[in-house]
Amino acid sequence: MGASQKCGSSIKPRPCGSLFFFVGTLWLLLMIMTACACPKSCHCTDRNGVVVQCTSRNLENIPLNLPKDTVVLLLSSNRIRHIPNGAFTDLHRLRELDLSHNAIESMEVGAFQGISEGLRTLDLSNNHLSSLPKDTFTKLHARIRLSHNPWHCECSLQEVLRELRLDPETVNEVGCYTSVQEEYVGQPVIQVLDSGINFCNFHQKTTDVAMFVAMFCWFSMVTAYIIYYIRHNQEDARRHMEYLKSLPSTSHISKDYDTASSV
Fold first, then answer.
1. pTM for the whole thing?
2. What is the pLDDT at residue 212?
3. Residue 6 C-alpha from the chain's centroid
4. 75 or 138: which carries more pLDDT confidence?
5. From CA 159, how far away is CA 153, in angstroms rounded?
6. Contact (CB, 8 A) for 164 and 137
7. Which range has the worst mean pLDDT, 16-20, 56-60, 130-134, 187-191?
């Protein structure tokens, strides 16, 4: 019977107690390791991966040494102004990133390098973004919120938006704060683009006009110089002719010489 006794038997309870103690110890060690890996200004919990809560902590930069098994990173309502290249490189399991309600003005190309393919949601709403580098979101498959930013509607923004999956609930809140064409200020960017407006064509026309104006100014300067040069030479020629006319003629000099000789 001893060989067939199970854990929980009244005869030998010790192995079961040891197993529970071992599992409990492992769980406690896991909690301690998670807590030690958590940034000092944040709070971390384990929910099939680490959830890092850094909301409203007056952070000015992305925290360093984030747990590598982070699946959710909440950084909203801080004072972050810039997202550098490779800010989340080691967070390969990251699925949700909330950067809303900060003061973000710029992001480098490669800011989301390493997480672009696994990320599912990215919230950049309520920041100070007006433009983005063209390759900022390369290979990013996440659903993105870009609402309530002071966007400048022009060609580069149009090219960036073409590659993104904008959150359908807030897509109409992505508006033109300023624009290369004033009549679109205050309108949702997507509605403007869906109406057939192409900011890149307008940019090309603006460039062509600027080039034409520059060439016209150059031609005008060259023409003015040529006219000045001709008039200046004409004035010099007139003065030279007047000087020559003021000189005694050769026949008059010869007559005066003959008269002097006869005397």
1. 0.66
2. 52
3. 64
4. 75
5. 11
6. yes
7. 16-20
The greatest distance separating any two alpha carbons of the chain, rounded to the nearest whole angstrom, comes to 173
* CA geometry: angle 42, 128, 178, nearest 5 deg: 165
With 90 as the cut, is the pLDDT of residue 251 above it?
no
Written as one letter, the residue type at 145 is R
pLDDT value for 111 = 94
Cα 111 to Cα 8, 87, 107, distances in angstroms: 54, 6, 6
pLDDT band at 228 (very low <50, low <70, confident <90, very high): confident
Distances (CA, A) of 3 to 11, 67, 101, 229: 12, 45, 64, 119
CA distances from 157 to 83, 129, 205 (A): 18, 11, 17
First to last CA, the chain: 173
| 60 against 17, higher pLDDT | 60
Q: DSSP for 145-182, please give it.
A: E--SS-EEESHHHHHHHHT-EE-TTTGGG-BEEEESSG
Cβ atoms 102, 124 nearer than 8 A? no
Segment 106-144, tens digit of pLDDT: 999 999 999 988 999 999 999 999 999 888 998 899 999
Q: Scan for tokens 């000015």, then name that residue.
A: 60
Give DSSP secondary structure letters for 67-129.
Answer: -TTEEEEE--SS---EE-TTTTTT-TT--EEE--SS---EE-TTTTTTTTTT--EEE--SS--
**190, two tokens:** 């997507």
Q: Structure tokens of 236? A: 């010099």
* Integer Cα distance of 154 and 243 in angstroms: 66
